[in-house]
Structure formats: C-alpha cells, structure tokens
Amino acid sequence: MSIRALINEDLIDLHLHGSNQLNVIEQMASMLERQGRIESKSIFTECVLEREAQVTTGFGNGIAIPHGKDETVKDTSISIGKLSNSVDWKAMDDRDVSFVIMLAIPESEAGTTHLQILSQLSGKLMDEDFRDSLMKANEKEDVLNLLSDCITEKNIG
Amino acid sequence: MKLIAITACPAGVAHTHMAAAALESAAKKNGVKIKVEKQGAMGIENQIKEKEIADAEALILAVDTAIAKPERFEGIPTVKVSVGEAVKNSQGLISKAIELTK
C-alpha cells in the first residue's frame, strides 16, 4: 500500500499563506475538492471546524492535524500546508501553528488500509525527529518520501 | 511495573494513535512496561489480553468516548483523562499511574 494513494504533490502547499485558521482550512479543503476527493469544500470545512470546536488539533510545537470524518469524503486523503506565516490554532501549548496536516476520512469503514496509514502517521507525529524533518522539508518530494518511509516501517503495535 | 492503557477519540484515527504513541514513548523513558489498546476507527487494535489485565498494576484511560468492554478492568487502579491530555502530558500521566501502584 502506497501513501501516494492518499496524497500527491497537488495536495501539498509548502508556501501557504493563510490569514487565519479558517482560511487555512478552506484553502486546504479546496485542494481536496479540486481532486474530487471530497464532495463539498464547505461541508468538509464545517466538519473540520466542528472537530476543532470539541478539542483543538493543534497538539503543540507548531503543528496541527485537523481532520474531518464525513459521508461526503469520497477518498481517504491527506493534505499538507506549510505556512509562510503562522496562525492561532488555540493549540495545546498556545503556540501558533505553521505546519498543518489535514486528514479527510470517509464515514464508511471500507478503506481500512487507508485508515491504518493515517493512524500510523498520527502516531509517528509524536516522534520529534520525524516532526522536525517534516517541518524542514523544502521540496514536495521530500515530504512524500518522509511520509512514505513512516508507513513502511510498520510501526503499528 | 506493568501498566495498561486504552486510547479512544471520536474519529478514532488521529488522537487515538497519537496518544498511544505518546504513552508508549513516555513509559519507555520511565523504564515502565505498558500495553496500549487502541479503540478506533478500525475497531480494537493491540487488544489487552486477560493475562495482561491480571498482571496490570494500573490502568490509564485516555478516552473521549465510551470504551468497549469496560467490565474487563474492574478493581484496577485507574487514571482517567481526555485523549488530548495524554497527547499533551503523557509523562505526567505515566507518573500518576506509577503513583497509583504504590
């Protein structure tokens, strides 16, 4: 199973300029919508914001992992935005966020292998070295390779 | 020292697995054994076995949803927090759980 079924170069923006959290989420949802991975940018954005309202996904160190699980998600997907500025995310450590990994999760449990990849990636984000390399990547290809390495390591317990 | 833990969040993908990884890494740093069961979108992963429940000295529940099969853990000293707390402060949680075993 390749990570490239979930993400590709057009789902990565390494120079994203967003005025605030909502704007960043909308821009990233647009990338997903353009590829037909979600049915509606506005429904998905709404869904991601609802999740943020429960608890922030800004888990510290300048990274956030917003996600939406909805029936309007057609393909399990990841989009990545490296911000040229940083924005408030009500993060757990109160730091502004400059790196965003957004997950689109379908309602049905059909794509279990895809969910497994998202799960592995989420766990891997607790690894400081991995986070640092990801945040420092300047080429889309490097981002894809880092993601791809972390899922082939089979780090699921 | 043997600890067990369960992580679960509403979507069952991101925080469930982030919290599990954070707890495993904090336990390792403290030289403590931990088995973390993840109750997520893929069902129960890394399920805690009966023998492990019998040997467990404390249970950490890092959950934002009702967990499956809670009756398995009756009588085990338990720390219960939100899944976000486990992501943010896994070290503190492991310390609390160790406290409970004393």
UniProtKB/TrEMBL annotation, chain A:
- Provide this UniProt record's keywords sorted from A to Z: Phosphoprotein, Phosphotransferase system, Sugar transport, Transferase, Transport
Q: Report what the protein is called.
A: PTS mannose transporter subunit IIAB
Gene3D superfamilies in the cross-refs = Mannitol-specific EII, Chain A
Cross-referenced InterPro entries: PTrfase/Anion_transptr (IPR016152), PTS_EIIA_type-2_dom (IPR002178), PTS_IIA_fruc (IPR004715), PTS_SugarTrans_NitroReg (IPR051541)
Signal peptide boundaries: none
The record's annotation in Pfam families points to: PTS_EIIA_2
Where does the record place the PTS EIIA type-2 domain?
Answer: 5-150
From TrEMBL, chain B:
Q: Which InterPro entries match?
A: Bacterial_PTS_Sugar_Transport, PTS_EIIB-like_sf, PTS_EIIB_2, PTS_EIIB_2/3, PTS_IIB_fruc
Q: Looking at the record's lineage, which domain of life comes first?
A: Bacteria
Q: Which SUPFAM superfamilies match?
A: PTS system IIB component-like (SSF52794)
For this protein, the parts annotated as crossing the membrane are none
Q: Which residues form the PTS EIIB type-2 domain?
A: 1-99
The keyword Transport appears for this protein:
yes
Q: Which Pfam families match?
A: PTS_IIB
* Keywords from the UniProt entry: Kinase, Phosphoprotein, Phosphotransferase system, Sugar transport, Transferase, Transport
Alphabetical list of NCBIfam families matching this protein: FRU
The name this protein goes by in its record: PTS system fructose-like EIIB component 2
| Gene label | frwB
